[in-house]
Each structure stands twice: as C-alpha cells, then as structure tokens.
Amino acid sequence: MPELPEVTTTVNGLNKVLKNLTIKDVWSDYFLRTKNKRKDTIKNKKYFEKFRKEISGEKFKNAERRGKNILIHLTDGKTILVHMKMTGHLLYGKYSWNGKKWQSYEPLLKDSFNQFIHLIFTLSNGEHLAFSDMRKFAKVVLFETKYREKLIDLAGLGPEPLQNLSLETFTKQLHKKPDGKIKTVLMDQSIIAGIGNIYSDEILWEAGIHPERKPKTLKKDEIMKMWKATKKILNNSIKMGGDSMSDYRNIYGEKGNYQNAHKVYRRTNEKCLKKSCDGIIIRKIIGGRSGHFCNTHQK
C-alpha cells in the first residue's frame, strides 16, 4: 500500500501539472466491476453520477496529503479525496478509448502495472488524469472542503511525522498504546499518520528497536532514535520518489527508487547491513502484518 512518501510524491506531481486545469468530463467503471458497493463512494452508481455532475466544469486548485490520503482541492470549495489503498496510483498523460478500455501509447504509461484504469478525468489541456487500481480497493469521495475535519476518513488521524512533530508529541502519541507492539503502534493511523508496513520496518531497524517491544518499555534515548529515524527514512524515500517494490508508480508512470535502499524490508534470511552486526534478517507476522527485523541489533 502506498505510504507517506508515495502519497507525497503523487501530490507533488499533481501540483506540477493540474493547477488551473478544468475537468471537462469524468468516466469510471468501478460501479460495474466492484462488489459490496458502498453508497458513499464512486463505486456506487448514483454517487458517481452526482460526483461527475458536481465536478465537471470545475478547476483544480491544488493538492495536499493527509496521512495516506490525497486531497485534491477544487476552486468551488469542494475536495476530492483519493485513498489509493493496496494497488492504486494516479497517472497523467494522454489516453484514448478503444471501445473496450482506456489505453495510452506513451511508453511508461504502457507499463503492465498501469493498465488497470477504472477512473478517468478528461482535462481542458487535452490530457487525462487516470487512476490505475488492479485490485479495485481504492476509495474516491467528494466533500465540502470546509467540513474536512468532520470527514470520517480524516477526523481520527494522528499528527503528521514530518510537519513540526516534536519529540515530546511523538513520545506522547506512542504512549497512547503503552502495551501494544511498537511496529503495530507506528502503523496505527490514529497515533502517527502515514506510516505503514515498509517504513515501520525500516524505522525500527534504523533505531535498533525490536518490533515487538512495548512503548512503555522504551527509554527516552530509544524514543529519540525512533523520532530521528522516522524523519530520516521518510525524507530519504521522498527524495528517491517513493518505493516501487510492488506496483506503485508516480503520475508519469515511473518507478520510485527507495526499494533499492531497503535495509530490512523483504530481506528475509539476508545478512544485516548494519556495520559490525552479524545478524540475519527475520520475517515474522506481527499484528497480522509481515515484520522484518534483525534479532541481533534490534533490542
């Protein structure tokens, strides 16, 4: 699932290409291809029809990230929320309808991971904003911007880890789940927004903290190491365009590069890369998710 660096990379791309463009039309087949259709997303036909009517003719203002959510603000006081979930990513380029599906002849957009188009915005400059979502888990909703704090998708989110998050606040947030396993606590969006499976593993490896430690057992210097590692790891991934070990692509269809910098994630049975450590990377299910860690230097 795209995490904070991937969502940030997408938002940065959107802000480069969409500003002041008008939405000429919107197409989707989510409501034809998705079971268990919720009434409050575009996966419901009536909702999509209203969605299409309300945003057609409107201009893009800017985009921002909140947690793992993309918020695309329009000039009429409305905002489109996109949660990419497991396999979704937004793509910008020129598409055409071949009678069965949308396709692009641009080389990067022809990547096999970019072929699952279930939402298309036709733009005033002749380009398109497409949404590829292989597993069709993504969520797209429209809401009035002024009510954002009341939206269920945003209301319960914890603080952002890269926006002036102090060590004091970081410590306070972790201690809200004193008996949880620290990997699971880091991934809890009500504690810290935006961190998922990849970066929780990398942060804990960098800080030398075992993923099954309880927050109440962590010393001040250990929490400080986690706090510093969080900022370092997330910022480094943003600089590298996010992580494309799975199917994430940026808006141009390009892979990120952070998968080439992994120290622990998906390195099961490989030698630990920490200097002077002879450990081997272990994989273990922690809180229902795969955790990767070094059992030697992560205490």
Automatic annotation (TrEMBL):
The keyword DNA repair applies. Residues 263-299 form the FPG-type domain. PANTHER family: FORMAMIDOPYRIMIDINE-DNA GLYCOSYLASE. InterPro entries: FPG_cat, FPG_Glyclase, FPG_N, H2TH_FPG, Ribosomal_uS13-like_H2TH, Znf_DNA_glyclase/AP_lyase. GO terms for biological process: base-excision repair. GO terms for molecular function: 8-oxo-7,8-dihydroguanine DNA N-glycosylase activity; class I DNA-(apurinic or apyrimidinic site) endonuclease activity; damaged DNA binding; zinc ion binding. Monomer. It catalyses: 2'-deoxyribonucleotide-(2'-deoxyribose 5'-phosphate)-2'-deoxyribonucleotide-DNA = a 3'-end 2'-deoxyribonucleotide-(2,3-dehydro-2,3-deoxyribose 5'-phosphate)-DNA + a 5'-end 5'-phospho-2'-deoxyribonucleoside-DNA + H(+); Hydrolysis of DNA containing ring-opened 7-methylguanine residues, releasing 2,6-diamino-4-hydroxy-5-(N-methyl)formamidopyrimidine. The keyword DNA damage applies. Its cofactor is Zn(2+). Belongs to the FPG family. Keywords: DNA damage, DNA repair, DNA-binding, Glycosidase, Hydrolase, Lyase, Metal-binding, Multifunctional enzyme, Zinc, Zinc-finger. It comes from Candidatus Zambryskibacteria bacterium RIFCSPLOWO2_12_FULL_39_23. This is DNA-formamidopyrimidine glycosylase. Pfam families: Fapy_DNA_glyco, H2TH. Residues 2-138 form the Formamidopyrimidine-DNA glycosylase catalytic domain.
